[in-house]
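Example record

The entry below shows one chain as it appears in the dataset: sequence first, then structure tokens.
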Amino acid sequence: VLGLIREMTRTWLLGTGPLAEAFSAAFNVPNLFRKLLAEGAMSVALIPTMRGYFAEGDDEKTREFLSATLSILTFLLLAIMALGMAGSLGIARLYEAMARDPSLVTDSAETAALIRLMFPYLAFVSLAAFFQGILNAHGVFVPTGIGPILFNLSFLAIPPLVVGFLPNAARAMAVGVLVGGFLQALCQLPAVVRTGARFGFVSIRRAFRNPGMKRVMLLMAPTLVGTAAYELNAFVSTGLAYGVGAATSIQISLRLQELILGVFVVSVATVLLPELSLRAAQRQHVQLVAGFRRAIEGVMLVSVPIAVFSIIQRRNIVAVLFQSGRFGPDSVAQTASAFLFHSLGLVFIAANRVITPVFYARQDTKNPTWAGVASFCVNMLLAWALSGVMGGQGIALALSIASAVNTAVLLFMLMRMGLPGMGATLVASAGYALRLLVYSLVAAAPLVLFGQRFASLFASSQSRFVFAGLPLLLSTFVFGGLGCLLLFVTKDPVARSLLAVFKRKTIR
């Protein structure tokens, strides 16, 4: 939610004009390496290895491992930052080279300046990830959770304070990024000191020879391949969008999609993985398939109606959240168009978040990686082809099609596993998703038939909370009420099961 508010501040200051496009493209560069190093493969490999050292209780070995990790991380960061800052103009021109229409790229020099300004952010968040590994290995999680909150609050507070002292609002946003990254690392340092962890710098040769570091690199390798494919996908997509003047609108649309997935889907996948891992370890394949069916149908119950509602109410959703300052009606229309095509893929992305843990539960990382690579290739080809015809809408549509391809490949691989009852489960889940689509279309019918007439009553208002918010609120009540009524009348078993769980939690 704070991430959404952060984007509201960004759009208020920048809108979707040239400065917004320059900031979107520039921030994408350090963010790419952040996801690869700080929050991607490194965290996945580092935390379990650290936990093993702390559990062993040998302070000298632990100090050697932590020092090796810090030394290699620092070496890599300094090298990447030096190359990135020195080559910032080259990166900006690479974006320009990806453009289908180079005339739409208005300020490569400003993009390069913003890249140079924001690259140190990578050092701060990578150090924060190192601290997070130490704390999580000790079972300490609160400071880690506070870090992203401070980052978002900095993004909200700093730009309005410094914008008057800088050449433009995009530079002010860049300063907010730097301060936020610094606070994300700083807030964890006191807790790290309290754990008693000790570390320093050692030579790079000694660091690479450390047994724990070798283990981390072996664990990182397969995850890094899959993560790199996904993040390179995002990088190229942003470059193509930048080339058609749609990078900001696509990023805002993706933020809305991530909010939906984060609130309703990621939590299900997070809870699902430990249960499936236990069933797989105990070779309880029937229970594993049953748990997967509950999860996939639960996710469908949420994602299918939300996708339909988002498509119909896309313009009101974008307007009520973002239309202010420099983000005017044209920016709303551009972002709503991207959100339409992103919403088409929402169900597939949600399904992927639940299907993938089945592979991880069986310690299979190769098949999801191959599925990701296939999806990446489809997305790149379609984004390039469709961006020339449809602009930013084509890039959003390409991602949705690629997500559907990813789902299809994963389902095919699931079928080949030979788990008892998996074929019947997939057929039943597909039928349930189609039934939910019918329910959703029935519930949406009044919005399509009468929504425009109701919206015209408030169209003259200057407040987005009136001309967009009131129609959106009424539509939510109508759509949600009819949908719940259909589930009640048909005695939907998944809805009844979720309601029973909710009641038990409430009573407790």
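Notes for this example: The chain has a mean pLDDT of 84. The longest helix spans residues 422-455.
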